[in-house]
Amino acid sequence: MLALKLKDIIFKNPIMVASGTFGYGNEASDVVDLSKFGGIITKSVTRYPREGNPPPRICEVSSGMLNSIGLANVGVEDYVQEKIPFLNKINSNVIINIAGTKVEDYIETLEILETASGNHVGYEINISCPNVKEGGLEFGVSSKLTKSLTKELRLRTKKLLIMKLSPNVTSISEIAQAAQEGGADAVSAINTLVGMAIDINSRKPKLSTNLGGLSGPCIKPVALANIFKLYKSLDIPIIGIGGISNDRDVLEFLLAGASLVQLGTINYKYPNLVASIPQAMEEYFNLNDINDINEIIGALRLDD
Ligand code: DHB
To answer: What's the CA-to-centroid distance between 174 and ligand 1, angstroms?
Structure first.
């Protein structure tokens, strides 16, 4: 009842974990049953290793958190050696998140992953990181760059291609349409909002980079508004992200038009939550006589 298809890929349920909040699946595998997950999006991988930003790079704020990790990761070559073997054992859909600062970085990273013997079903392309000085977000704020990057990647893979959108733009629908025209199979939205926190005693910003990405329950209404706008302007499916913390939140996102969702910040507090949400949703489906998840995607009731 909760299963659905995205392109030719079957998802056992629509609940996935967001990039950066579950590592490469291995850290929590002793305490969490990953096979209950609809999918796992791995922490961004880049063409070359990155140390990321200096600490402090995480801080808690009201109803959420700020982070400026700076895309710290081992780089795609080590990723293929060290991470793919574990990812291949996961009984769930693995989607690899790729980030970059230049078009060539994204292309080369994807090409290396295409030739690795990974069981991953697709790629989520991070064009919306707020924490790197060059590139990253630059793509996500330009329809032209988004379309050309999507096209280049589309030429090189038949796997799922998902473009992850930034809310830090004038019109998210325009960027999403550019991704659609470039050949993306879906978009995911929203990535973090630019935010800041200040320590009044030291009078210093709480993050070393001053600004960071805001996530958690505080961004849920912003995310829902963006999903609502995207659903009206797109033909391809939307993957909803932004402060989802329980089964009722998931249902709100589906009603607004998301086909699947990703849980992020809440995983730090309750790593087992994702595994428990499908059952709670089944109960809502039974109570409301819903037989197929597609019946509630975008089924928001609006006054004319
Ligand atoms: C990072 C990347 C993101 O896409 C984001 O939203 C927040 C942080 C990072 O690695 O810094």
So the answer is: 22
Mutate to test the pocket of ligand 1, among 46, 191, 219 (most ligand atoms within 8 A of CB): 191
Q: What span, in angstroms and rounded, lies between the C-alpha atoms of 104 and 233?
A: 30
Q: Exposed, middle or buried, 63 (CB in 10 Å: 0-12/13-18/19+)?
A: middle
Residue nearest to atom 10 of ligand 1 (CA): 71
Q: What is the dihedral sign for C-alpha 36, 126, 59, 243?
A: negative
Annotated catalytic residues are: 129
Amino acid at residue number 249:
D
Angle, CA 9 vertex, CA 6 and CA 292 arms, to 5°: 55
Output phi, psi for 64, to 5 deg: 175, -165
Report how far ligand 1's centroid is from the alpha carbon of 167 (Å): 13
Query: How many A from CA of 219 to the centre of ligand 1?
Result: 15
Atom 6 (ligand 1): residue with closest C-alpha?
A: 192
Homologous superfamily of domain range 4-50+71-193+215-295: Aldolase class I (3.20.20.70)
Model confidence, pTM: 0.97
Stated as kind and residue range, the H or E segment containing 148 is: helix 143-154
Q: What is the pLDDT of residues 207-263, one digit of tens each?
A: 999 999 999 999 999 999 999 999 999 999 999 999 999 999 999 999 999 999 999
Domain segments of the chain: what residues?
4-50+71-193+215-295
